[in-house]
Specification:
Number of strands: 15
Radius of gyration: 21 Å
Number of domains: 2
Number of helices: 10
Strand content: 15-25%
Order of helices and strands: EHEEHEHEHEHEHEEEHEEEEHHHE
Strand order of the largest sheet: 1-14-8-13-12-11-15
CATH topology of the largest domain: Rossmann fold
Oligomer: single chain
CATH class of the largest domain: Alpha Beta
Shape: globular
Helix content: 25-40%
CATH superfamily of the largest domain: NAD(P)-binding Rossmann-like Domain
Amino acid sequence: MIRNVIVYLSHTRFELEANWMEHRVMKEKEPNDISRRKFMQAVGAAGFALGMTGVAGRADAPRDADGNIIAGFDDTGKAGATTRQGWQPYSDRKIRVGIAGHGLCSFGAQFFFQDHPNVEVVAVTDLIPHRCSALAKACRCEKTYPSCEEMIKDDNIEAVFIATDAPSHARLAVMALEHGKHVASAVPAVYGSLEDADHLFEAVKKSGLKYMMFETSYYHADLYALRQKYLADAFGKVIYSEGEYYHYFGKPIGGYNPKTGRVDENGWRNGLPPMWYPTHNNAYHIGITGGSFTEVSCMGNHSKVPHLRPENNDYKNPFGTEVALFRTSDGGMSRQVVGWDLPSGHGEKGRFYGEKNSSVSVNTSRPPLPPGISGGGHGGSHGHLTSEFVDAILRDRKPWVDVAQSLNMTVAGIVAHRSALKNGELLKIPQYTL
């Protein structure tokens, strides 16, 4: 008899650890002259200081139009707990990074590039001048640019973190790759466009550079543990999985509006089709298995929330919640939900069902972080994503959330929304493999 294993994953609150560390790795004027011994001494001192002082405090968490803390920036104390013991530097080289986007959530500074011992933040940018200044201060960086396009042209920059408005992610990522820069991007990888997905995929392959989407669910403690167990064959063939992302938008939340060049309630977030922002939940299958979704039937709930009605948003989107049933590349099924109009729903959740329930001995702890790096928000995932991206560059290896997985997560949602507009018609999903 087939035995089912049921794992219930729940993230109802997430942690945002602190403003900035009081101690950081000493910055040398000439990184190439740093000896390995000096580097080890520096990171050791930083680690000691962190252990003594901990986190000094945190700024007020960003809030939505209803006054609620934005999902992922909740402070729950131990949610982002991680270990630094056992981290070993691979290189003393500092990667020169440019950061784009401060935004509603101070996002560009929330992933601790400025605190990583192998990173020097050499430039920042935001289209809103006062936000650009705030980002520069947070990243302890003097050089600023009026736009990401201008910053990308800086030949001194090796890698960029694109934390801008979602509609610009793919365009800026492609531009950066074409200018010879590694790219880390906030989610989603592309915004509603299958053509942009193909363009980004080809740009990554042609450049030979690193691209990584910073999907926070990958480093939630429970998802990471499931991934390790899956790799150890604890579940056998996966029959069924579920992922859910709930973020209540009873009122429109401000976003950058390309039409006006301002942040307003008619910005990119207003009326956003739920399945255009699917990676937080889709990660609860793709992030565990490394597979993809091959076809989908999706239904949408016609929302009563005013800005989620088609006559009130530029997307002509009628849905506040979308529920998709996917066929998976390993022959199973996965139900995925994104909901904007459910006041009782919050955060990311997932469930996982396999043919067997084996007891395996495997280390499910997340990797150690460098001294000076906090786990941060979204369940302590922020620091881990940055550490993974930096390490992939230094070791010249493929990052975990590579362009194929990023697009398989994102494009599945784009096709799911098209299915919902066709009352659940079964549609094929483009596949991306490296």
